[in-house]
Amino acid sequence: MQADKRNHLIDLLRIIAAVGVVLFHFAYAAANTHNWYYYICQCGYLGVPIFFTISGYCILIALQHAKKPSEFIIRRFFRIFPPYWFSLLLICVIVLLLRVLTGANSVAVLPKSIAGFAATLSLLTKPVTSIPTINWVYWTLSFEAFFYIVVYICSFFKKQYFTIALLLVTLLSIVLPVYKSGVFFFLGYWPLFSIGIAVYQLLHYSASEKLLPAVLLAFSIAGFYTTHQQFYYVLACFITVLLIVINHFVPLKDNFLSRLGDVSYSLYLIHVPIGIYIFNQFKTPVIKQNLFYCIPFEMGLLVLLIWLSKLMHKYIELPAIKYGKRFSR
Question: Measured between alpha carbons, how far is 209 from 228 in angstroms, rounded to an integer?
Answer without folding.
Answer: 30
